[in-house]
Design a protein that fits this description.
- The chain is an alpha/beta fold and about 325 residues long.
- It has two domains: about 170 residues, Rossmann fold (3-Layer(aba) Sandwich), CATH 3.40.50.1000; about 110 residues, Hypothetical Protein, Haloacid Dehalogenase-like Hydrolase, Chain: A, domain 2 (2-Layer Sandwich), CATH 3.30.1240.
- Helix content is about 25%, strand content about 20%.
- The strands form three sheets. An eight-stranded mixed beta sheet has the order 7-6-5-4-3-14-15-16. A six-stranded mixed beta sheet has the order 10-9-8-11-13-12. The protein has a two-stranded antiparallel sheet with strand order 1-2.
- Helix 1 runs parallel beside helix 9 and helix 3 crosses helix 5.
- Keywords: Hydrolase.
- GO terms for molecular function: magnesium ion binding; phosphatase activity.
- This is HAD hydrolase family protein.
- It comes from Georgenia subflava.
- InterPro entries: HAD-like_sf, HAD_sf.
Length: about 325
């Protein structure tokens, strides 16, 4: 598929080869015909990205998607959210989908129980690396502005919100609490950096892909660098080794589930590791080319209930099965 920039923040793709999936009528489930007859491994865990996957950009979770996610849980399989969002952005998603449970947040840096807000796993960024990243990015991209997400607060540099606001694509974000975000001249001046699990950086002078490449050249392997926002040139930094894929592997192992029994859905660079690790990785049609390259199959677009249609096909074929073990994911 070829990634295209579009107006109205809806992503589309142009078929680049005969391997592109031909979709059925948008009212039809996607037939569960992606595996060879001898490989009918059951799916016992469904992991899904949120924005651009089950939630169209600047859209809403559809009734069809809500019903499909409920079917996963009703059949005894695990449903895990896997998102770049921080935990504080999860309540509107749980309300819209009707499903609580585990959420891999901040691209794998923190895992929470959405029903209670309890933190299951946290991989903070070593404090010295925050200052290192800020200084290195300012040298590489002079107009960069940064923000830090901690377990207790969200801080932004002067100018960050001005760059962030106009192209913001996410829907279903919570109302802004009084005093949130907090302002700092530079993130190095933030007094509460303990528990920092994510640094965001934004520029107005590069595209998202250009900025992602520059940030990776500048910061890796000291930090994990990814991106998830098609409407802004934002990169997201985490401790080295952090990814949705790594966090999902840990969650699945605790639940006694193998990679071959996991179906994962996503659409952006921050989904690449997860789509590659899962036995059934579905990139959304119109997604970023790196996500499509990492996946084993393509799902219809988010705006056409792509995740729901694939899950309906798995239900119809009997592929979606109850989890056989339920372990304490917090141990």
């Amino acid at each position: 598929m070829i990634w295209c920039e579009l107006s109205h923040l809806r992503k589309e793709a142009v078929p680049a080869s005969a391997s592109s999936l031909t979709f059925h009528h948008l009212d039809d489930p996607v037939p569960d015909d992606g595996a060879a007859p001898e490989d009918r491994t059951p799916v016992r865990l469904v992991a899904t990205d949120i924005d651009g996957t089950i939630l169209p950009y600047r859209g809403a979770v559809s009734p069809r998607t809500r019903s499909a996610l409920a079917a996963v849980v009703e059949r005894g399989a695990h449903l895990v959210y896997a998102t770049g969002r921080p935990p504080r952005w999860m309540p509107p998603i749980v309300e819209a989908t009707g499903q609580a449970g585990l959420a891999i947040c901040a691209n794998g840096a923190i895992v929470v129980e959405t029903a209670t807000g309890a933190v299951v796993d946290l991989v903070p960024i070593v404090d010295d690396l925050v200052g290192h990243a800020a200084a290195a990015l300012r040298r590489a991209v002079p107009d960069v502005r940064l923000a830090v997400e901690t377990t207790t607060s969200f801080w932004v540099e002067d100018g960050y919100l001005a760059l962030r606001g106009g192209g913001r694509p996410e829907g279903l974000t919570p109302a802004q609490a009084p005093g949130d975000p907090r302002l700092a001249g530079h993130i190095e001046d933030v007094p509460e950096r303990d528990g920092t699990f994510k640094v965001l950086a934004i520029t107005g002078s590069l595209t998202m892909d250009e900025f992602l490449a520059a940030a990776r050249d500048t910061l890796e392997p000291d930090l994990a660098v990814t991106a998830s926002s098609p409407g802004n040139a934002i990169v997201e930094l985490a401790a080295p080794g952090v990814s949705k894929g790594a966090a999902l592997a840990t969650v699945a192992a605790r639940l006694g589930i193998e990679a071959s029994q996991v179906a994962a859905f996503g659409d952006m660079p921050n989904d690449v590791e997860m789509l590659g690790w899962a036995g059934h990785g579905f990139a959304m049609d119109g997604g970023h080319p790196t996500a499509i390259a990492a996946a084993t199959r393509t799902a219809p677009p988010s705006a056409d209930d792509g995740v729901a249609r694939v899950l309906e096909g798995m239900v119809a074929s009997g592929r979606l099965q109850p989890a056989t073990e339920r372990a304490d994911v917090g141990r």
